Amino acid sequence: MQASPPLWRIWPILWLLLVLQTTIFARFDILGVHVDVVLLAVVSVALLYGMETGGLFGLVAGVLTGYCAGVSIGSFVVSRLVIGTGFGLFDRRFSNDNPLAAPVCAVVATVIAQVIFGVLSPGEYGLEMWLRQTAISAVAHAVFIWPVYWVFMRLIPTPRAFA
Amino acid sequence: MRRTFVYILTLLVVAGALVWWQNRASQNGRISPPAGLMFSLLRPGQKAVSSVGGWFGDVGKAMFRRGDIISENEELRGRVADLEGQNLRLQRYLRENEELKSLLKTPKPPGGKSVAAQIVSFDTSEYTQRFFINVGHRQGVQKKDIVYTAHGVVGQIVNSDYKLLPLPTSEVLLLTDRSASIGAVIARSGATGVVKGTGGELCKLEYLDFYADVREGDTVLSSGMVVKVGGVFPKGLVIGRVVKIERDKTLSRLSAYVEPAVPFKSITTVWVRAGAHS
To answer: How far is Cα of residue B265 from the mean position of the Cα atoms in its chain?
Structure first.
C-alpha cells in the first residue's frame, strides 16, 4: 500500500508565495509587468497533482489573490479555478515526458487569466495595453515557472498513480 | 464524471459566496472578515521578508559596486561588503527618521484626526495602483479618508476592515490609479481642472479652459471641488508639478501631464486624515 503524498505542504507554500507576491514581486517589474508566482503555483499544482487538488488550490489561490488585488476578485477566482481544474485533467505523463510542458502551460494559463480578467473587469484598459501586458507576462511566466515547478516537485512527491 | 461535476460545482458555490461577501463589504467601504483574516496571517511574513529583502539589497548594492575589483582574499571582501551594508542600513534609518520628522511638521488638513500608518503590502494587479496600510476602523479610519505625506497627496481610503479583526488593515487608492480623480487648481494662475490617474507614473490635468494660463513647472494644488469619486480632498494640498502641456486646437482642448509630488515607490509611511467627513 503506497503512502499518500504530503499534499498539505501546498498550503504553507501558497502562504509563502503570497507573501513574496505582495512584497518583493510587487516592487520589481519586467517592462512594467509583475511576475505572478501564485498563478505559476496553480499551474504547477494542477500538472503535478491532478484535477481535484489543482481545482481546490486554484480556488483558494484565486480568492486570496483577489483579496490582495482589491479589485475584480471574481475574475481571479474564476481564472485560477479554470486553470487549476483544466490543467489538472492532463495525464501526469504529459508533464513528465515533455520538458516544455510547464512553460507552455504557463503561457496558456497567462493568456486565460488575462482574457478572463479583461472580460470580467469593469476597468477601461485599452486593447494595446492588454496585448502588451499579456505578451510580456507570458514570456516572463514561461521562464519563472521553472523554479516554482521544481519547488513543488521536490517538496511534494507526486502520487505514483500519475506516473 | 458525476462526482467531478459535483466537486467543481461545490467549489464554484464556495467561491461565489466568498466573492459576494467581499463585494458586499467593499460597497460599504469595508474589508470582509475572511479577507481581514488573510491579511492578518500574511502580515508577519510580509514584515520579515521586507526586512530581510532590504538587508540583501544593501549588501547586493555594495557587492555590485565592488564587482569589478578582483580580490584574492574572500574573507576581507566579505567583511568590507558587510561593513558597507551596515553603513547603508544606517543611512536608510536616517532617511526614515528624516521622513518621520517631516511628517510631524506637515500641516494637517482640516477636520478629523491624523493617524500615522505604515505601508505593509501592494496590490497584485498590474492594472491598479493601490496599497495596504496597517491602520483600520479601530483607529477611526473610514472609506474616503484622505492619505497624504509631507510631499503631498497620496490618495484616499477605499476599504477599511471591521473592528473585530486581529490586525487592522485599510486599502488605499493612489492618485495615479485610473479610477482616481481630484479637483485641482494651478497655484500660480488659479486655473482650475480635474487631475485624473492614468495608471502610469504621471497624472493628467483635464477640463482646463483652452486659454488657461498653464506652464511647465507650475505647482498643482487640490481645489476642494467635488468631482466623481473624489470631492473629499480639502483645498490647498500639493498634488504635483506640470511636466507637459497638450493643446489640441482642433477640439479647443487643453490638458497637462502632472508629475505627482509624492515618490510612491519609495515611501514607507503615510498620514491618514481619519473621520474628516463623518
So the answer is: 9
